[in-house]
Amino acid sequence: MIVLIAALIGAILGWQRAARLGGNRKDRLQYAIVFALMLAVAGLFVTIFVHRAAA
Question: What's the structural domain count of the chain?
């Protein structure tokens, strides 16, 4: 669940970042995908850490 939330937040942040920089729709989509992937990977590590800490 953490991974999905992190990916969604990353996509929103990426879209906003590209919009602030004046990018067109393709730029915004690319930023959204990259930010979503980065935060999803970070969320995966957090999920693994929480799961291992609970055991």
Answer: 1
